[in-house]
Amino acid sequence: MLPNTGKLAGCTLFITGASRGIGKAIALKAAKDGANIVIAAKTAEPHPTLPGTIYTAAEEIEAAGGKALPCIVNVREEQQIINAVEKAVKTFGGIDILVNNASAISLTGTLETATKKVNLMMDVNVRGTYLTSKACLPHLRKSKNPHILNLSPPMNLNPMWFKNHCAYTISKYGMSMCVLGMAEEFRGEIAVNALWPKTAIHTAAMDMLGGAGIEKQCRKTDILADAAYCILTKPKTFTGNFIIDEVLLREEGVKDFDVYAIAPGNPLMPDFFLDAESAAQEEKKLSGSQQEGADGAKVKTESTAAEPSGPVAETFRVIQGVVNEEYVRSTQGVFQFDLSGDGGGTWYIDLKTKGGSAGFGKPPVAADVVMSMSSADFVKMFTGKLKPTLAFMSGKLRIKGNMALAIKLEKMLSQLSSKL
């Protein structure tokens, strides 16, 4: 863990989405220095499924040693932003730091993303970041060491980060483009940087996306709080950077990263947009090159439409042999696999109907989860050479349906891989 230095004592931080998760973690870290925190978030009344309100966050910030100003702010509403900024300046005398943390996410394809979801992501992620920055900028200019920090990724234009969730990617890269533009526009006056996690971070949003058990593959919000603290205590000449939390903390001398893990020793899920750093490294560990994996030429045999043969068919033959009542009882799900390439087509594993079954064609009952991927990657996944979470995060695997059941299947895979 990165120790506090006291450098943020008396500083005023305006943090969007600070009632829970990453925003609150950054607020609590700064509060230990005795900073003033403006909690600009929309949750004033307890949410039925999400923890925390602006008022409970304020209590925690005060208990940690800071001063808190809870403000009801939906960043989609410009007047609410302006009102909160004016209240912050009136209460604390100015604003030194803005953290654009509020974000909306929908990991859906173009045809599956409802217009209201598109509007939400564009309004919160891009427009909200832009308008909050605009409202704070005149006050930041008066600070001795002003910073804007956006929780957004380096802009990786690999198409795989667009194909499965185009609207979300555009909205997050919009936040990153605010960093690019404003860092240059206000160079010498205000530091503007982006921060992004190397691995998945355990938040309420991650629980909703990944289902039960996902937290074991995540780090705590503390790692982003430490990285943000490190950035915000640097001089304003440190600007225009796209920072990965672990990379920065290693440079700062942090050696023990197990302290940030929810379950130390467990494999961590790489975050979105970082294939160059994360997925590529993982790929090197897999047998065969990426090119061989993509075309499967060295491992596939000819197949016919009616009677598929080859590694995919062999994999399903083994799965059929090990499916039993115990797997059915503990899983209660039907999985459909739409595979491209040699030996591809539609396959299924039924772990809901009595006894269970697996094979070629559509499942006997409606699928709870539909997974789309190449037949070569499917074989790698079921033989333990490609982690399902890595396949999903890197765009090799597309999942529709019940994510919690998809997680259950991953647990079954770890038991099966020794037999395949």
Describe the protein in words:
There is one protein chain. This protein is an alpha/beta fold and 420 residues long. It has two domains: 12-285, NAD(P)-binding Rossmann-like Domain (Rossmann fold, 3-Layer(aba) Sandwich); 311-417, SCP2 sterol-binding domain (Nonspecific Lipid-transfer Protein, Chain A), CATH 3.30.1050.10. The protein has 16 helices and twelve strands. It has a seven-stranded parallel sheet, sandwiched between helices. A five-stranded mixed sheet has the order 10-9-8-11-12. Helix 3 runs parallel beside helix 4 and helix 4 (115-140) runs parallel beside helix 6. The protein is elongated and about 70 Å long. 47% of the residues are buried. InterPro entries: HSDL2, NAD(P)-bd_dom_sf, SCP2_sterol-bd_dom, SCP2_sterol-bd_dom_sf, SDR_fam. It is found in: Mitochondrion; Peroxisome. Residues 325-413 form the SCP2 domain.
Question: Short summary of the structure?
Answer:
Its main location: mitochondrion. The protein contains 16 helices and twelve strands.
Secondary structure topology:
Layout: E1 12-16, H1 21-31, E2 36-41, H2 54-64, E3 67-72, H3 78-92, E4 97-100, H4 115-140, E5 147-150, H5 160-163, H6 166-185, E6 191-196, H7 204-210, H8 222-232, E7 242-244, H9 245-251, H10 275-285, H11 290-295, H12 311-322, H13 325-331, E8 333-340, E9 345-351, E10 357-360, E11 369-374, H14 375-382, H15 388-393, E12 398-401, H16 403-416
Parallel strand pairs: 1-2, 1-4, 2-3, 4-5, 5-6, 6-7, 8-11
Antiparallel strand pairs: 8-9, 9-10, 11-12
The quaternary state of the protein chains shown equals: single chain
Low-confidence stretches: 277-307
What is the level-2 CATH architecture name of the largest domain? Answer: 3-Layer(aba) Sandwich
Class based on secondary structure composition and strand pairing: alpha/beta
Region (Disordered): 283-308
Main location: mitochondrion
Organism: Sinosuthora webbiana
Family: Belongs to the short-chain dehydrogenases/reductases (SDR) family.
